[in-house]
Amino acid sequence: MRVLVVEDDPQLGPWLRDTLGTAFGSSDMVTTLEEGRAAVAVRNFELVVIDRGLPDGDGLALLRDLKQQKPSPATIVLTALDDPIDIARALDEGADDYVAKPFEPIELVARAKAVLRRLFLDRGAIVRIGNLSYDVLNREVCIDHTPIVVPRRELAILEAMVRRIGRVVLRETLEVAAYSFDDEIQSNAIEAHVSRLRRRLRAANCKIVIKPVRGLGYLLSGE
């Protein structure tokens, strides 16, 4: 799962990125409407958290753009404005939820889980392949109904392949899933993550196969 934070506050923005990234997977942060539009043009996000008061305009302008996407991401609007009219306007524009500043981390994560739960009701939140099941919302991997621990980047790579079962997943797609815009990526990073992921799944007696496709990426399939 991928999260985008659109927030220009130099303290709050990185905090939001890290908090939501820890809860849901890879996360990116931008500080303007223009950067937000550029980000959603090149990557797909399941959750976008948008501040109202951005340097180049109201965050609701980006919200309107997001609601034209198919499928559109879950959205949460942040603002220091707590007037009922402002709240109603954000919801009328299509926001899934509205959080007034200041707020606690536990509140934001809970609200994000709630809007994502509604999103995944229509898309299928649990994917099953062989004896592996993956809960997209809670980011939990189970083998024969037993949870196993998978590190963050390996988990992002597994999710990208699980959600494209039976199709070749390009190496570039896996890089996007596992790394944020500002991360430096070593030339063999994806290969190393996939190798460790294979060993981890094999140790848990997982009955899926991750096959390399020369010059392209990887193909995940059940036995």
Name its key features.
Arc Repressor Mutant, subunit A, five-stranded parallel β-sheet, four-stranded antiparallel β-sheet, transcription cis-regulatory region binding, Rossmann fold, phosphorelay response regulator activity, CheY-like_superfamily, 8 helices
SSE layout and pairings?
Layout lengths: L1 E5 L5 H13 L1 E5 L2 H10 L4 E5 L1 E2 L2 E2 L1 H7 L7 E6 L4 H9 L4 E4 L4 H17 L4 E4 L2 E4 L4 E4 L2 E3 L3 H11 L5 E3 H8 L10 H15 L4 E6 L3 E6 L1
Parallel strand pairs: 1-2, 1-3, 3-6, 6-7
Antiparallel strand pairs: 4-5, 8-9, 9-10, 10-11, 12-14, 13-14
Helix pairs in contact: 2-3, 6-7, 6-8
Instruction: Pick out the low-confidence regions.
Output: none
CATH superfamily placement of the largest domain: Response regulator
Radius of gyration: 18 Å
The shape is: elongated
State the strand order across the main sheet: 2-1-3-6-7
- How much helicity do the residues have? 40-55%
Question: What is the first-to-last residue Cα distance?
Answer: 25 Å
What is the highest CATH level, the class of the largest domain?
A: Alpha Beta
For the secondary structure, the number of strands is 14
Give, in order, the helices and strands: EHEHEEEHEHEHEEEEHEHHEE
Give me the secondary-structure category: alpha/beta
Architecture (CATH level 2) name of the largest domain: 3-Layer(aba) Sandwich
- Count of individual domains: 2
Number of helices: 8
Tell me about the biggest sheet? 5 strands, parallel
